Amino acid sequence: MSQVFLPYSPEVETVPEDEGETIDAILQSMHRLSARTREQVGHTIRVSHAKSFGAAVGVLEVLDGLPEELRQGLFGKRARFDVVARLANVPGEIMTDAVSTQRGFSIKVIGVEGEMLPGHAGEVTQDFVLDTGNRFAAPTAAAFLLTHRGLEHAPQMPEAVKQAVSRASRATNAVLHVVGADSANLDFFGHPRVHPLSEAYYTQAPIRYGDYVAKLAVVPVAAAQQALEGEALDTGDDPDALRTATVQFLQAQDAVFEVRVQLCTDLDSMPVEDASAEWPEEQSPYRTVARLTLPQQDAYTEARRRYVDEDLSFCVSHSLAAHRPLGGVMRARMRAYPEMARLRRGENGAPQAEPRAVSEVPG
After folding, report:
1. pLDDT tens-digit map of 2-30
2. Is 187 a member of any domain?
3. Which of 31, 229, 302, 352 has its CA 20 to 30 A from that of 340?
């Protein structure tokens, strides 16, 4: 018996009446945090994914012979696209890597054709912004606002305190994992200290997948990456240990990932409006639709770092209409990401344009 997947329609989303005001408040909080960090570091940095540890170019190859439900949007036919990827810590501050937080993997696919979301018309890029963990820490935009205000009003903790919080969070989550549970909130503050290229990354919240609804994952498959899975990365006295590990790996060999899609089958067990819900893989497993290769390269030259960190923005709203982000958390991101990117680049005097070809990315 074939599996039935939930058809996409606007009705999969339920927008609270006060959501506009909630997102306004999120943006106000982000502006205040951005101003504070600018004062501390001397220039405007990202309000999330601030500290990068890799800036790589690569190739995304859509597989041939996919079944109809997977042949959607960007993945509708066999194709090959250039990409630029940015790996970073998730928090919006620059910390030593002894504070081990969730990591992000942002991918900009270049040369994309098709109807774009409003605000991205005429562009040729599709961004996927992914993080470790298959679900978001907050279920809704309103819950995220409370978390963000907590970060805003919390006193600036000394580095030693942040390290202690990170250790405690990792230890607690490790105990929970033994009994078949874990906490997305604990993972945010105390992610396992493993190699960034050995981990899977997820959209966490849902996106439209053409005629369907899905979450997307990028999973390492090269033998050298899989050999690092679960192994603790010794940060030692290196405050940029994640960067060192990422750059050294890519200087020596390719990193290869599969792009996988988990299609929604039921809104009750796989909700769109609760971004903190884990979609059961036994109900709908992740299935491979493409291969992403980051070939051997120097993934952190000064020119490359400056371009990817300062000139580029990775936004969930940089998207085909066929992959529109879904749910309250994603709707908040669609407003927040471009506004904060414009602020950051404007205050730093950086260009605002999207790339048209990978040749624009410095070596």
Report:
1. 789 999 999 999 999 999 999 999 999 99
2. no
3. 302
Is pTM, for the whole model, over 0.85? yes
Distance CA 217, CA 289 (A): 10
Query: How far apart, in whole angstroms, are the C-alpha atoms of residue 320 and residue 312?
Result: 18
The verdict on residue 178 lying in a domain is: no
CA atoms within 13 A on the CB side of 97: 25
Asked if 125 contacts 74 with a C-beta cutoff of 8 angstroms, the reply is no
Residue 67: CATH number of its domain? 2.40.180.10
Instruction: Write out the residue range of the structural domain in which residue 239 sits.
Output: 10-159+195-353
For 241-293, how does the pLDDT look when each residue is reduced to its tens digit (9 = 90+)?
999 999 999 999 999 999 999 999 999 999 999 999 999 999 999 999 999 99
3 state SS of 201 = strand
Q: What is the DSSP string of 147-163?
A: HHHHHHHS----HHHHH
The whole-angstrom separation of Cα 268 and Cα 306 is 44
Q: What are φ and ψ of residue 169, in 5° steps?
A: -65, -45
**Secondary structure, 3-state, 3-64:** CCCCECCHHHCCCCCCHHHHHHHHHHHHHHHHHHHHHHHCCCCCCCCCCEEEEEEEEEEECC
Looking at residue 175, its pLDDT comes to 37
Q: Is residue 183 in a domain?
A: no
Confidence band, pLDDT 50/70/90 cuts, at residue 96: confident
Q: Angle CA(143)–CA(145)–CA(127) in degrees, nearest 5?
A: 95
Task: Convert 207-224 to b/e letters by CB count within 10 Å (16 or more is b).
Answer: bbbbbbbbbbbbbbebee
- Residue in the structure block whose two tokens are 């890029």: 125
Candidates 100, 86, 95; CA nearest to 235 is 100
With vertex at residue 293, the alpha carbon angle to CA 70 and CA 111, rounded to the nearest 5 degrees, is: 65
Q: Which residues contact 79 (CB under 8 A, 6 or more apart)?
A: 61, 62
**Count of the separate structural domains present in the chain:** 1
Across the range 73-89, mean pLDDT stands at: 97
Residue 251 domain flag: yes
